[in-house]
Amino acid sequence: MDQTDTLNENPVLKETVQTSNNLKSMLVQYAGDKLSPKDNNITVEMVIEVMAEEFPEFVMALAEENWIRGYQQGLDDVQAGKMLMDQEN
User: Fold this and answer.
1) By the 8 A CB rule, do 63 and 51 touch?
2) Pair (61, 84) in one structural domain
3) Same domain, 43 and 75
């Protein structure tokens, strides 16, 4: 794996989910039953995989909202940068 791959990878996806509340426990149990990992550890990525398969409209709503917010933040940053440049000139 080169440095570009490492920079584009979200380490949270590989974290084992700690069942600190009822919802997490339910999701981990469900993902574990569905995927049957050999080490019995359920990662965030595994939960997302199961959610995307079983409840795609939920995952899509989150992804779309995240994309829209990111796009808006990018536009806001460009506008703020332009204002700073205009002030310097």
Assistant:
1) no
2) yes
3) no
